[in-house]
Automatic annotation (TrEMBL):
This is Serine hydroxymethyltransferase. The record marks 227 as: Plays an important role in substrate specificity. Pathway: One-carbon metabolism; tetrahydrofolate interconversion; Amino-acid biosynthesis; glycine biosynthesis; glycine from L-serine: step 1/1. Keywords: Amino-acid biosynthesis, Cytoplasm, Methyltransferase, One-carbon metabolism, Pyridoxal phosphate, Transferase. It is found in: Cytoplasm. It comes from the Bacteria. It comes from Candidatus Doudnabacteria bacterium RIFCSPHIGHO2_01_FULL_45_18. GO terms for biological process: glycine biosynthetic process from serine; methylation; tetrahydrofolate interconversion. The keyword Amino-acid biosynthesis applies.
Length: 411
């Protein structure tokens, strides 16, 4: 009420964005709709407090309640991911990118070799992009997917590790539609005596729900954002074996961050309680069912998918046979109220600004209660818009009516 009267400009922009989020089909694989309770914690007075340091070792006074918030968040992360007793949790990273840099900074020296997935085949900027701090300060060697299958080729990854002796091997991706064999990665890391790190930012929610294999039994360090399939606030967590705990904690604070955002940490705690429910497990199962259904329907309409399908919440559509680039497709779909992002496909002959593919994910639409039946409807809208650009406006109207039947959490 007070924002509305005291700052009508921002109030109105929030209202417009709320309407936009309600009226579109949100297919960006990294987005989701958080609960009212997560929003309430984020918007709470916890944002007022400075708490540099860690629970019971703070540099500021007045943290006796904040300590309990952070300890609860840590305990709930441990329960959600079923961490062994010799694992440690840091809930302070502001987001996924800093979390990754904080691990490198804590465990490696500048210039050390890190092996990770190349960006154009599904890696993240913080996995060694030349424009990112990671690529500028560490020596990255990159593996990719097999040209034939679009899947990870573990023999090739082993050969590259043997040849380059990385100090850290990183797996976990932003655009890989298939199950990751964490056990094979661990074997490769053990063979070359590298630290094993998994960045499960995208699939975190599937992992806690038991819908995707967990890296925890196999890896040394695991990072994840909390706002993608985990459906929490924009933040991240670092989980590690105890022997890395002190180096990672020092790297997060005072190494790379100052005061933790305790309002976000409280929201992480709320989300970690939510993911332990039967309802969330069902949700995560439905996310994957929906992705498979959407993939099959799109294939029925003649779309080509990288690797021929999906095991998780996302798929990569290679538009080469549809005579449209990723940029045009994304913009056209946007006009129709279908929100996606363009993406490179493996061995893409086109450039990142206008690549050959679009990436689609089902995490957000599944939070609105959509099921397999709705996926075939969505596939037919995508097909209609890509095939005949003039229908975009009509489709937008249809989607506006359609989405009214699927209220999104938190809106
Ligand atoms: C999203 C993502 C990140 C980064 O998260 P931000 O919160 O956007 O910084 C890191 N790694 C992977 C694999 C991701 O998908």
């Amino acid at each position: 009420m007070s924002l509305r009267s005291k700052d009508p400009q921002i109030y109105e922009l929030i209202q417009r964005e709320r309407r936009r989020q309600a009226e579109v089909l949100e297919l960006i694989a990294s987005e989701n709709y958080v609960s009212d309770e997560v929003l309430e914690s984020l918007g709470s007075i916890l944002t007022n407090k400075y708490a540099e340091g860690y629970p019971r070792k703070r540099y500021y006074g007045g943290n006796e309640i904040i300590d309990q918030v952070e300890e609860l968040a840590i305990a709930r992360v441990k329960a959600a991911f079923e961490l062994p007793i010799d694992w440690h949790v840091n809930v302070q990273p502001y987001s996924g990118s800093p979390a990754n840099l904080e691990v490198y900074n804590g465990l490696l020296e500048k210039g050390d070799t890190i092996m990770a997935m190349s960006l154009d085949q599904g890696g993240h900027l913080t996995h060694g992009s030349p424009v990112n701090f990671s690529g500028k300060n560490y020596n990255f060697v990159h593996y990719g997917v097999s040209a034939k299958t679009g899947r990870l080729d573990y023999m090739e990854i082993l050969k590259l590790a043997d040849r380059t002796h990385p100090k850290l091997i990183l797996c976990g991706f932003t655009a890989y539609p298939r199950e990751i064999d964490f056990k094979k990665f661990k074997e490769i890391a053990e063979k070359v005596k590298a630290i094993s790190m998994a960045d499960i930012s995208h699939i975190g929610g599937l992992v806690v729900a038991g819908v995707h294999l967990s890296p925890i039994p196999f890896f040394d360090v695991v990072t994840t954002t909390t706002h993608k399939t985990l459906r929490g606030p924009r933040a991240a967590i670092i989980m590690s074996k105890d022997k890395f705990a002190s180096a990672i904690d020092k790297s997060v604070f005072p190494g790379m961050q100052g005061g933790p955002h305790e309002n976000a940490i409280a929201a992480v705690a709320v989300a970690m309680k939510e993911v332990k429910t039967a309802a969330f497990r069902k949700y995560a199962e439905q996310v994957v069912k929906n992705a498979k259904a959407l993939a099959r329907s799109l294939q029925d309409f003649g779309f080509k998918l990288v690797s021929g399908g999906t095991d998780n919440h996302l798929m990569l559509v290679d538009l080469t046979n549809k005579n449209i680039g990723g940029k045009d497709a994304q913009e056209l779909l946007d006009l129709a109220g279908i929100v996606t992002n363009r993406t490179m496909v493996p061995f893409d002959p086109r450039k990142p600004w206008d690549p050959s593919g679009i990436r689609l994910g089902t995490a957000a639409i599944t939070s609105r209660g959509m099921k397999e039946k709705e996926m075939s409807k969505i596939a037919s809208w995508i097909t209609a818009v890509i095939t005949d650009h003039s229908v975009a406006d009509n489709v937008r109207g249809e989607i506006k009516r359609f989405t009214k039947n699927f209220p999104a959490p938190g809106l």
